[in-house]
TrEMBL record:
Name listed for the protein in its UniProt record: DUF620 domain-containing protein
UniProt xrefs under Pfam families: DUF620 (PF04788)
Species name: Adiantum capillus-veneris (Maidenhair fern)
Amino acid sequence: MKLKKKRSNGANMDVVVGEALGPLMEGPVPEGHIEELYEDTCGVTCWMKGSKRRPPTDPRLLLGVLGCPLAPVPVFCTGPLSNLSITIVPLEASSAQYIVQQYIAATGAMKLQSLMRNCYTSGKVKMMFSQYETATRLFKLPVKSADNGWFTLWHLYPNKWHMELTLEGSMIQSGSDGHLVWRCTPWLGAHALTGPVRPLRRALQGLDPLAAARIFGNAHCVGEKRIGDEDCFVLKLVADPSTLSDRSDGSSQVIRHALFGYFSQRTGWLVYLEDKHLSRVHVSESNENVYWETTIESTLRDYKVVDGITLSHAGHSVVTLLRYGDEATSHTRTRIEETWSIEEVAFNVPGLTPEFFIPPAEVSSPGLTKYLHLHSKPDVALASG
């Protein structure tokens, strides 16, 4: 892992360190194509500013949005799941905790807590732009334009993880040592993400029922809804103002972020996730505010038992990126899709120690973190995570 990090950081840090830290600009560039990134005067940056009138095709956008987004809030409790109480909280919260307890029983999360020290997961992904809409034109992109890739995810319970995702030869890495979350791309190198430590959204997609139970233990039940053939309870989790403030940076402000979990009344499993995120970015060149509304809807399916733990082994996500600002002609809507499948899951992997999850050296450097903060470009610093 360290060799890969070192190789990923081989790009010119002094050239690109001033570029945006937003996830939409954090997808990697294949080796040998760094020059093309800077020669493309109407590529990703133009698309994000609204000056691009053709459908986006850059895989960095796919990786930035779907690669490794985070949950809206941190996991405040890492103690035993049995500590969840349904007697001293409001009705909506107690109903949610009862639903979470059913989820714990249905997935075997209690066994995951007591007997499993770590976990390794690998899988395949397919990502594609399916639709791009401007104020005057609608583009529908062919299925053959999909990009294929794979990912590996390592967990050391309760709160350490490392993920690598490769799409058509481009790799993005992300991880957490339990104290900070970082991301690494070939051209930007490694950098810490702003805000509190939050779990990886991909892990909540049926791969880590322990994290899902803990994060939804703080949710509220907001009703029932039918998803496909399943009648579901709906739990809602909202980032509080303090968390949103910590995640805002410079001229980029996170206005709201909510996560909805749909739990099957029949099986108790989490079968659907809906993520809604709104941010505002002040574009200094045009002196206007641009709003980015991101919605990620994920269907989780193909639950299978691995060593007594029930995990989702396949799913599909649909992302809608809505950009709007002062000028109606600059409004755009982009639709992105991902299909994934799990190939391998292994618990209690020998030799997996906390040292494996130490961030790259430059992430731990206060000097570089401050430099990145002061020189980030807020006009393209979007937050999907």
